[in-house]
Specification:
GO terms for molecular function: hexosyltransferase activity. The chain has about 325 residues and is of the alpha/beta class. Helices cover about 35% and strands about 15% of the residues. The protein contains 7 helices and 10 strands. The strands form 2 sheets. Strands 1-9-7-8-5-2-3-4 form an 8-stranded mixed beta sheet.
């Protein structure tokens, strides 16, 4: 009997070893370029959209409809056999009202043809909506660390994601997007969005100048950006990149929040996010087409809305928490 138990234990260890080895081999192939990465010029044609900003001052691409060849990127990432993560936080009324439309639309449009793990952070596993996923897609439900702490929900959601990133998630995916639940995918959200560090341009502020951006103005805050400085205003709704990069964003937010709390200050997650990207320039930017607010009159620059923002006036999100205000939109530069 002892021999049988030991044999079974040995088999389990061997299976675990080969599982880890297989995952590390995939990661090695992905990050050590045994499959040659296509040059930016092979798939990105910014000259096709002269009406918008398509390249930043630090030469990062800004992805707009018509500027990319997804087929080339699909072929590249298929050879790497990557897995892409999508994390969303849903609790209470947010879960009941917004989670199912988000998941249904993500299943239809998010990274079609590639292996996807959807991470749902929630306070009650029993109240999750039923969603039938397509091929190569799986769910993983993760608990919020402190589901009863409603006032600290944005910090709680991101801290929970951070903890799960350290434990499991970073072993399971090559890229990860953390998204707010108040969104509905309207069109294909594909591999053209993948990058080491991915930021979403805010629809409300894209046509404004840096001195108009609602950055944190208090110099004593960890989120402070000097007046007139900054490049763009980034939306909290979509943050992506490698698991390491997403962890870095959350880590700085947690540290900034703790610093400000010690000084009896508070600021929204989006302010800390913009401070992070002010010093750590994203390697890829998503145009407002990837998160457009249908309450705003659609200007001619918006050719194809990938995701529609669903947050109503005065609502809060699990990745912000505080109230947000609409800007006075202008289509003039």
């Amino acid at each position: 009997m002892l021999i049988l138990i030991l044999s079974g234990f040995s088999i389990t260890l061997m299976e675990y070893h080969f599982s880890i080895k297989n995952h590390l081999q995939k990661m090695y192939i992905c990050w050590n370029n045994q499959v040659e990465e296509p040059q930016l010029s092979a798939w990105f044609t910014p000259e096709k959209r002269p009406d918008v900003i398509t390249t930043t001052d630090w030469l990062a691409p800004v992805i707009w409809d018509g500027t990319y060849n997804r087929r080339i990127l699909d072929e590249y990432y298929e050879k790497l056999n990557i897995t892409i993560g999508l994390a969303v936080c849903g609790y209470g009324k947010l879960r009941d009202l917004y989670l199912k439309p988000f998941l249904d639309s993500a299943d239809k449009h998010f990274m079609v043809g590639h292996r996807v793990i959807i991470y749902i952070l929630t306070d009650d596993f029993n109240k999750l909506p039923y969603v039938e996923l397509g091929p190569r897609r799986t769910f993983k439900v993760l608990p919020l660390l402190q589901p009863e702490v409603w006032q600290a929900s944005p910090l709680n959601c991101l801290s929970s994601l951070y903890a799960h990133l350290q434990d499991d998630v970073h072993h399971e995916v090559n890229f990860l997007f953390a998204m707010a639940v108040y969104q509905i995918f309207k069109y294909d959200f594909g591999v053209e969005t993948l990058g080491r560090s991915v930021a979403q341009l805010h629809a409300w502020w894209y046509f404004k100048k840096p001195h108009d951006f609602p950055y944190e103005k208090r110099a004593t805050s960890a989120a402070f950006i000097p007046f007139g400085k900054g490049d763009f205003y980034y939306h909290h709704a979509i943050v992506g990149g490698t698991p390491l990069e997403v962890s870095s964003v959350i880590k700085q937010y947690r540290e900034g929040k703790a610093h400000d709390a010690a000084n009896k200050l508070t600021s929204i997650y989006e302010s800390y996010l913009n401070k992070y990207f002010f010093f750590n320039k994203p390697t890829k930017l998503l145009s407002p087409e990837y998160n457009w607010d249908p309450n705003i009159k659609t200007p001619p620059q918006i050719k194809c809305v990938k995701i529609a923002w669903q947050c109503l006036d005065g609502c809060t999100t699990p990745f912000i928490g505080e109230q947000v205000e609409h800007s006075n939109f202008s289509s003039e530069n």
